[in-house]
Write a structure and sequence with these properties.
mainly beta, globular, disordered N terminus
Length: 386
């Protein structure tokens, strides 16, 4: 396990001209936590997202093949909350990727489900649909209530789908999408403000299926206002909102994994891919001196991992010393790290005794009390505890 001398990144030495960054990285002592198994291997099929409405004691767990399961009173329920497995494309990095409860779920019962739909002779479409909870069973979504929200064709490959669907602090629905796959942004989606691939989208779902918010950015080169809130992302598999900030974990290609942290209400940002990979100049799609690129606050190289798994800022009660820190992991390494920013100084710590295992960490989850979980490809659900 790599310790502090290999974790620190001197971002100031790596930033290119034209990238905006006001942070520096400093050392923080390793923190203590452990992973407590909630569900063992063999009960779930590739769990990939875990959510719950605020204050709800149940756990809702998405399985990549196309089901959402319910854990109530510590018991995994037999009947799924939703089963759309017959429609879900699962090749490569596809599958049911995430879901989100509407901020007013307690009164409207709306759940937004994000998956890759199987379309013959294609690599699937990125789809978000709205469902409503059954009036007679709070552990079941009414499939007849399905309302299409948005569909994005993914024509190029079976990787880099992104992504996550989530509500921001502004009540708008956000969706992250990868750049279409392959290597080196070969389809050139990420810097194309017309394409929805390699982007963070923002839409208003108050009137179905959705409208484009009037304060979405107007993109240059006569593109105009569209669903795109931010561009220049490679594979933003997970992002999170907290205390007016947006945290994006963008999966790198061959060199660097990055975390971007910006004010959540900032429109029109360009995170640089494939001009940049983290703080490394790639020069694909534009010069590295391109003005206005947003640099990561932290990145690490592939001697430490291969694919960042973004988590959440901890807001639970079980580990007070972790309050306000952003937890993340890596698919290959399985470490658990915490990132904190105070007065522009970034500190990154690692839990030396906590590791989910190599090549299994798939995602983080957050329950109704703000406690965090790690989901693994071999079917385990692990709770982060003291």
């Amino acid at each position: 396990m790599r310790m502090w001398h290999s974790l620190l990144v001197a971002l100031g030495l790596l930033l290119p001209a034209g990238c905006n960054n006001s942070t520096s990285v400093a050392e923080l002592a390793p923190f203590e936590m452990r992973l407590q198994q909630v569900i063992g291997a063999g009960f779930l099929s590739s769990p990939i997202d875990l959510q719950a409405p605020p204050g709800d004691s149940r756990l809702f767990i998405a399985e990549r093949p196309g089901r959402i399961r319910v854990v109530q009173g510590g018991v995994l329920q037999t009947t799924p909350f939703l089963d759309i497995s017959s429609r879900v494309y699962t090749q490569g990095e596809a599958g049911l990727l995430s879901f989100a409860f509407h901020p007013n779920y307690s009164t409207n019962g709306f759940v937004y489900v994000h998956f890759i739909e199987s379309i013959p002779t294609t690599f699937g479409d990125i789809v978000v649909e709205r469902y409503q909870v059954s009036s007679g069973n709070p552990n079941l979504l009414d499939v007849s209530s399905m309302q299409p929200v948005i569909r994005i064709p993914h024509p190029d490959n079976t990787n880099h789908y992104g992504g996550r669907v989530a509500f921001g602090p502004d009540g708008k629905l956000y969706l992250s999408a990868g750049d279409g796959g392959g290597g080196d942004n070969q389809y050139m989606h990420a810097q194309d403000a017309v394409s929805h691939l390699g982007k963070l989208l923002r839409i208003d779902v108050s009137a179905p299926p959705y409208t484009i918010p009037a304060d979405n950015p107007v993109w240059p080169n006569n593109v105009g206002r569209n669903e795109n809130w931010a561009i220049g992302l490679r594979n933003p598999f997970r992002y999170a909102f907290d205390a007016g900030q947006l945290y994006i974990a963008d999966v790198g290609q061959s060199a660097l994994e990055e975390i971007d942290v910006v004010a959540a209400g900032t429109p029109g940002l360009n995170y640089g891919w494939s001009i940049m990979e983290g703080t490394l100049c790639r020069g694909i799609g534009g010069p590295c001196t391109t003005p206005g690129l947003t640099a990561p606050v932290y990145n690490y190289d592939h001697s430490q991992g291969c694919s960042i798994i973004g988590g959440y800022v901890y807001r639970g009660a079980a580990i007070p010393e972790l309050q306000g820190q952003y937890l993340f992991s890596d698919f290959c390494s399985g470490f658990v790290r915490a990132l904190n920013i105070v007065n522009g100084v970034v500190t990154v710590a690692q839990a030396p005794t906590a590791n989910a295992g190599t090549n299994v960490t798939q995602s983080f989850g957050q329950d109704g009390a703000g406690e965090l979980y790690i989901l693994t490809g071999d079917g385990r659900v692990l709770r982060i505890v003291r």
